[in-house]
Amino acid sequence: MSDADATSLKRPSGSASGTSAGELNNLNNVHIGEATTADMHYNIPNKIPKTEKCATSGISNIKLETNLGIPRRLYQIELVDRILELKGANAVIVAPTNSGKTLVAADILKNHFDKVPGSKAVFLVPNGLLAQQQGEALGKYLPKANTKVLRGEACTSEQINDLLQTTDILVMTPQILINAYDDAFDQDKPSFPISLIVLDECHHCVKKAPYSQLMEIFHLHLPGRPEPLPKLPQVIGLTASVRISTSKTDTAECNIFKLLANMDARLVMVEKNKDELAFYCAPPEEILVEYKDRFQIDVVIKPRKKKADLAYVQWLRNISTKLISLIEDAECKHDLVSCVEYLDMYNNSLMLNYECRSTDAYNYLKERAKTLMYKESRPESTDAWLADKYKGKIGTIEHYLCSSDENSWLAVLKEHIMKTKKPGAPMRCIIFCRTREICSALVDWANDSEELCDLNPGFITGSNASTSSKGLTNQQQNEIKQEFLDGRRQILFATSVAQEGVDVKKCDNVICYNFTSDMVARIQTRGRARKSGATYTVLATKQRLKDEEKSKQNEIKQNEVLQKIIQMPHPEFTRLLQREQKTLLADLRNNAILEEQKKQNHKRELQEQGKDYSLICGHCSDFAFSCEELRKVNRHHHVVMDEDFLKTRVDLDLGTFVGEKWPMWFQFAKMHCKNPKCRRFLGPVCHYNKKTYALPKIEMFTVVAPNGENIKTLKAWKDCPFHVERFQPENPLFERTIDN
């Protein structure tokens, strides 16, 4: 694209970013295409402080045309100008939700393409749901740029390079790019023709999150490599918040500098057009409503965490990953797993009974118990004892159902859902809930309500869970989101998956239903209320309202510290940033060296002893495979090489067809534990490049050390204490296929 492809920018004399609010009255007839700004209509917030109304009296009809040929506000132009002034340096743009950061990013991309013809860019988002949305937005704002959205987690370096031959902008999650860089390092060709990377929701660039892993590649592995490696790409971060966990100024400032150091970036915010920014991005009206606890739960043995709470769910998971996996006796281990499954079932039922109808909790209990009692068990076994305990309480539960009152929480929820509903006019209401099961149950409740059923309620949850656990596929997520955008669904119950970046301009009502979290989540959740005059309501218990107030105070402190940093003299800012970078790089280098040395030494010791790690079923403890049988394909997918594994150690469900699970990986079967009393799901079986691969899921297994001790259940392959070699294509073991 060239400058001739876009309509030229028409600004008043001087920089638009320096235009004062008083001068805006003289700009009422700025020419934009065939119309003037006087002919354009915008939604203006109804509730604006009087001082802001006075200061921004000339703003209501002002938008200026930019390099894109699309109208822009003055504060958006200011942000783009500040990025251009950095001349290729990295930056973090902090601006409120609904301020048009995606439009700003598109303008930055257009300027970059004009300056460096033929250059390539990557736009990264934290999840697949956002990838589709941002890809469509960039396609709209940059129609002459070829934009492609990638989904999944695996792409070889060759595939990325091939795509960049015909694509200007790749939109993807960061893990795809990390995997591609890993593959490129293995081939000693860590070079992609990428000159600009945009990190959307860059507040995730902390600790070991994917954004942070990507920056670690730029910090440690690319600098100092021999030519012809091109220079590092410019990185632009976009966020409405930075992650702080305290209201102490010094600690909050340190947290912000850690983010900037990790991205090697300057801080960019609106400074000259704050009045206009506040005018267009006025937050919704906030309403807090306290719920009284419905009932108290009496227990004989108190667990470490309160029942009917997500903390209890986490406590159960810790038992599974840290305690059960350390038990060597197979029968004892099986019994504890069964107990945890029943406790999880009861806890989810209690949460449903707290926040939904008792019938919803009972229906969930019946369905979940049916799957748990399906397992084969001896009459005297723990499974049989747990099943008998459940059956013995069914009569009591059914009697309670007949005598229980309607949940008063739901009446309050219905009132706040309907408060923005106007006769004959559509509405958009998002209700954030704690779990997938609660979302699903509330949809059933809404469909049974005369007032709500006509609004066609639906729910949106993450794609990592199975359908039986109320998870949605990527396609289902996009379909439901589109129905909500179009108005075919006017009520959407959602988990945290919809917190970030989901842009629904007509959303006029956001409700947190006993759903509170940290400061970043509060800002993101509230930011879904986009329409003028929208409301943000928190319906929660007393303790959760205290958490909400704490998050609010942290947000105030964040804004104070950001203003302090943006006003720092350049030498002072540079000194603090370099100090934090020095600490960061030293820690990264030391950790990388120590980790690699530890793994190599450990592997050498095991080889000398003729011993190695093995993996057993995380449920019944039956042997599955040794780590020597593992290989990595594309540096990401872990596969079992032993040709007898699929034939003798697992059962295959060949009737399950999912299709393309990852790019070019086609699932056609599922593996289950061979033990008839277990039948635990162990992972998918896929075709890739006309070959068959068994891909075990590490979280389904327990790792056994060479000395026979069990290691806690791992969440990801990267946490393994052993080294896994790359797949060698010439190995004949991979030439086999499965006979159907």
Automatic annotation (TrEMBL):
Give a Pfam family name: RIG-I_C
Q: Where is this region: Disordered?
A: 1-25
Transport is among the record's keywords: no
A GO MF annotation of the entry reads:
RNA helicase activity
Top-level taxon of origin: Eukaryota
Sorted alphabetically, the keyword list is: Antiviral defense, ATP-binding, Coiled coil, Cytoplasm, Helicase, Hydrolase, Immunity, Innate immunity, Metal-binding, Nucleotide-binding, RNA-binding, Zinc
Which residue intervals define the domain RLR CTR in the entry?
603-734
Where along the chain is composition biased (Polar residues)? Answer: 14-25
Q: Which InterPro entries match?
A: DEAD/DEAH_box_helicase_dom (IPR011545), Helicase_ATP-bd (IPR014001), Helicase_C-like (IPR001650), P-loop_NTPase (IPR027417), RIG-I-like_C (IPR041204), RLR_C_sf (IPR038557), RLR_CTR (IPR021673), RLR_Helicase (IPR051363)
Q: Which PROSITE patterns match?
A: HELICASE_ATP_BIND_1 (PS51192), HELICASE_CTER (PS51194), RLR_CTR (PS51789)
Q: Which residue ranges does the record assign to the Helicase ATP-binding domain?
A: 82-260
Listed EC numbers: 3.6.4.13
Q: Where in the numbering of this chain does the Helicase C-terminal domain appear?
A: 412-577
> Which segments of the protein form a coiled coil according to its record?
542-609
Q: Where in the cell is it found?
A: Cytoplasm
PANTHER family under this entry? ANTIVIRAL INNATE IMMUNE RESPONSE RECEPTOR RIG-I (PTHR14074:SF16), HELICASE WITH DEATH DOMAIN-RELATED (PTHR14074)
Give the protein family.
Belongs to the helicase family. RLR subfamily.
Q: What is this protein called?
A: RNA helicase
- Which species is the source of this protein? Capitella teleta (Polychaete worm)
